[in-house]
Amino acid sequence: MKIKVGRDESAKPSVIVSGGDPLGVGPYLIAFALQKSLFPENTWIVISREIVDYWFKELYGQALHTLGSIKIIDVPLGGDWQEPATAGHISFKYLSKATESAKICQVPLLTLPINKERWEKAGISFPGHTEFFRHVFPNADPIMAMKHKDLFVVAITDHIPLRKVIDFFNQREWVESRLRNIISELVKFSNIRKIAITGLNPHAGETPSLGIEEATVLKPFIGKLKEEFPTLRIEGPFPADSFWGMGKWKDFDVVLAPYHDQAFVPFKLLVEGKKGVHITLGLPFLRVSPIHGTAEEAVKSRNVNVDSFVECIDLLKKHTTTSNRNQLR
């Protein structure tokens, strides 16, 4: 299959795309975007040409003709690529090559969903993208966030078991460093002014019997953050249940929550699991991804919801223009 990549193949890409798990939704979404001409000019896509061609023919009944400046960086499938460990290894090769390219070129990275179980079968020790990025960028502090329109949430901790969250929050220096890093990343975007922090314990530890981390760690440091970032309105810690249940999140630009589910369960409920962008803050470049997983059942039925993927591309298009580079809207 011939891929037309424009006249200047050495031109710096505007965006790098990692193809995700070959058994998942990634190749389907890439074929869809190529058909609809959704990618920004001079996008580089790290994926197997063979699988994109397959999905293009499957969905549109014709061979793939990539027009303009889009470039496919071919990673051959090889072997029994439908075997779980092999599929996991292929998706990891996509991600590694795409991340290295984004690192060299200093351009945004769009990663499509991987299957964590297949990574494990392939002997890949990282539980997700965030931990992989922490390995590749040891001096960075990758931070998980999700955004849809005016709803923007950040998880203070990463992919860790719930029983370990308390251990992290009892490390005062770690909490202060992580919160300071998060705020420092958020102030890079000119539309961020009002920041809420929800509590770790029920009712934000209103009595010592419910937990003390709010009184001993969060409240004192929130006061310090207000002094360090005087142009921001930083408030909390709020009881998480009433904060979300009573719609208080609408009064803020971004919400920081102590752990994964406390941030992303309410987010996905509010967007009905179909919209929004997963963002990694703290890297040398912007990284985005759809909020859903590999969606394999939807792929089999040819009934894939593309809303989150399209939202990722729309955000990247805004971010890569000079006038919008400091915006996340």
Quick check: average pLDDT?
89
Rg (CA only): 21 Å
The class by helix and strand makeup works out as: alpha/beta
Shape estimate: elongated
Structurally, how many domains make up the residues? 2
Give me the oligomer status.
single chain
Major sheet = 11 strands, mixed
Number of strands: 11
Largest sheet, spatial ordering of strands: 3-2-1-4-11-10-5-6-9-7-8
Using the coordinates above, name the CATH class of the largest domain.
Answer: Alpha Beta
CATH fold group of the largest domain: Isopropylmalate Dehydrogenase
Features:
Isopropylmalate Dehydrogenase, eleven-stranded mixed sheet, single chain, 12 helices, elongated, alpha/beta, 11 strands
Account of the protein in words:
This protein is an alpha/beta fold. It folds into 2 domains: 1-140 and 283-329, Isopropylmalate Dehydrogenase, CATH 3.40.718.10; 141-276, 3-Layer(aba) Sandwich (Isopropylmalate Dehydrogenase), CATH 3.40.718. 41% of the residues lie in helices and 16% in strands. It is built from 12 helices and 11 strands. The chain has helices spanning 26-36, 49-60, 84-105, 116-121, 129-136, 162-169, 172-186, 213-228, 240-245, 260-270, 296-301, 307-319, and strands spanning 15-18, 43-47, 71-74, 109-111, 143-148, 151-155, 194-198, 233-238, 254-257, 277-281, 287-290. An 11-stranded mixed sheet has the order 3-2-1-4-11-10-5-6-9-7-8, sandwiched between helices. Strand 7, helix 8 and strand 8 (233-238) form a beta-alpha-beta unit.
